[in-house]
Amino acid sequence: MNTATITIIIIVLLFIVTTQHNKKLIIPLEHTSVWAIHDPILNKVSFDYVKKNMSNYTTHVNIMTEKYGSDQIEHAGQRYEELTIGEFITQKDPRKYVKWVDEDHGLKTSLKWVKSRLIRILGRPRGKTNWSFWLGFKGSFTSLHYDEEVTNLLYVIHGLKRITLVSPKDASILPKSSEHCSDDYIETKGACWFDIDIFNAAHVPRKTILVRSGECIQIPSGYAHAAENLEDTIAVSLTSDA
Predict the structure, then answer these.
(1) What are the angstrom distances between the C-alpha of 202 and each of 107, 127, 198, 205, 206?
(2) Which residues pair with 82 in a beta bridge?
(3) Which pLDDT score, from 0 to 100, does residue 3 have?
């Protein structure tokens, strides 16, 4: 093998290593950034696609309470019902949304490829990672909450989300009494949900960002955030504790 051949091989190897390294860095570093992906393969995951492939799959459907905007706190009146995906999509109820996580059987089968595709595009986050798949109609939302000690990367496949962020400094003025948070829930789930009236309080500084179809946003660790669906929306989130 001559010197020229060896040089070419080295250059090719350096190119591959550099490309893979840069791939890990394309995740936006600032929460104010919205990064456009518009992946044509992910874009095929529409409500029609989910209904066609998972219509008979029975799942927990979360029903938002009037006060909290979420069913996540048991003492606030936990509400959910069992529906098939076909029933959920046909009802198109703005009070209801579906969240699937890694352990969910439907994700491990019909939608496992979505996670693989997203990691291929974004690069695998460092540390322990988890992912969630969200289905929600216009008007549904998750109220202000923390994802403790994790960075959240949210990609909107279809629809439009309005993300509201409150910095760790500003979030410190929000109350954490038992009226608004369950200590057990914080310890086991790493999140804390707040009363919508408090979230809307004018004295709490916040930043609002629109995330459209094919766009991604990073929510840094420690930021309180809320997500509202301004259109019927399908989204995926990846969280990392690194």
Answers:
(1) 39, 37, 9, 7, 9
(2) 60
(3) 66
Q: What's this model's pTM, rounded to 2 decimal places? A: 0.73
3-state SS assignment for residue 207: strand
Work out the angle at residue 233's Cα, subtended by the Cα atoms of residues 186 and 66, and round it to the nearest 5 degrees.
50
Domains belonging to the chain, first-starting first, are 31-240 (2.60.120.650)
Q: Which helix (H) or strand (E) holds 34?
A: strand 34-36
At 185-205, the pLDDT tens digits run: 333 333 344 444 445 555 677
Kind of pairing, strands 224-229 and 215-219?
unpaired
Residues listed for the chain: 242
Instruction: Tell me how far apart the alpha carbons of residues 105 and 97 are, in angstroms, rounded to a whole number.
Output: 18
Give the C-alpha separation, 214 to 231, whole Å.
14
Tell me the C-alpha to C-alpha distance, in Å, between residue 188 and each of 20, 69, 219. Answer: 35, 20, 21
Mean pLDDT by 10 residues, the chain (242 residues): 60 47 40 76 90 86 58 46 89 84 67 83 73 87 71 89 84 53 38 47 76 90 83 88 66
Q: What is the pLDDT of residue 211?
A: 94
* Rounded Cα distance, 62 and 56, in Å: 18
Pick from 159, 158, 168, 164: which is nearest to 209 by CA?
164
Residues 6+ away with beta carbon under 8 Å from 67: 76, 77, 195, 196
> What tokens were used for 213?
């179809």
Residue 36 pairs with which residues in a beta bridge? 215
For tokens 């809307």, what's the residue?
200
